[in-house]
Structure formats: C-alpha cells, structure tokens
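Folding Problem: From Residues to Backbone Shape
Fields: amino acid sequence; protein backbone structure tokens
RECORD BEGINS BELOW THIS LINE
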Amino acid sequence: MSISPIGWLHTLGSLPAIPLAAYLLFKHGRIVPESKAGRAYFWFMLLGVLTVYPIAHQPVGLVIATVTLAALLLGYGIAVWKPARRAWAYAQTVALSLSVFLLMVPTATESLRRLPVGDPLVTDLKDPLLLGVQGALLLALLVGIPLQARALYKRNTAPDQAAH
C-alpha cells in the first residue's frame, strides 16, 4: 500500500501531536494552549487536519476532520479570546480533549489496518481488536473529561487561587 506525498505530509506532519498530547495530559492533566508544547500541538494538529481533506477516501474521514478542526479552533480560540467566565475553561478542556480523541481513533485504526506492512493486525473494521482499541479510547475520553473538570474545579476553588 503506497502513500501519496500529501499522505506522507499528513502522516509525518500530524505524528508529533501524539507525544505532545501525551506530554501535556500527563504534565498538566489537559491540553494547555498557552504552553510551548500546547502551541506546537495546535500547529501539528492543524497540519494533520487540513491535509485530511485531499486524501480522505470515506465521508466519515471528512466528518472526523471537520469536527476535529472545530474542536481545535474552539479550544484555541478560547485561549486567545480569554473570556472571563470560568465555564469557558471547561469548554476549552472538553474541546481539546475531544481533539486528542479524534486524533487517536483514526491513528489507531489506520495503524492497525496497515501494520505490519503486508500482514496488518486488522483487516476488517469490525475486528474485535480494533473495536476494543476504539472502545478503550472512548472510555478514556468519558472518564478523563470528568476528572479534568474536577481538577479545574479544585484549582479554581483553592484557597491560594492567586498563586495560579
């Protein structure tokens, strides 16, 4: 299975977003747009999302790309706009966590369907391995967002709030 030049740009351009997301989630518990890693995550994600449009073979790929782009722009737009209400911090966290989820589902799916080359682990979209990985990613999102919200709430109600 060959990859076109735009496919390589998409793959290699979006690949750094994965370790950046992992770093930000482990260090901060969320994607922090104002950090250097957060800014890099934005640019690599934007490159990855925008290069999906010319290479997507299925309409679902275009839908995922569009939702990812909307989540990314919402999350980073809130960081730039800096609205005063605390609720926006929650919206930003949910949007950027959704962007990570929407990065990882196609990444896992394509990796399992293409690797190892010539004998991929998954050949059917209904394969139990693939469904299990996708289910685990969904579970991580559904468990992670409330944990992130709880951490934001604790941070916002801490007695030494001025230190944050």
Notes: The first helix runs from residue 5 to 14. Residues 15 and 44 are 8 Å apart (CA to CA). The radius of gyration is 17 Å. The chain has a mean pLDDT of 94.
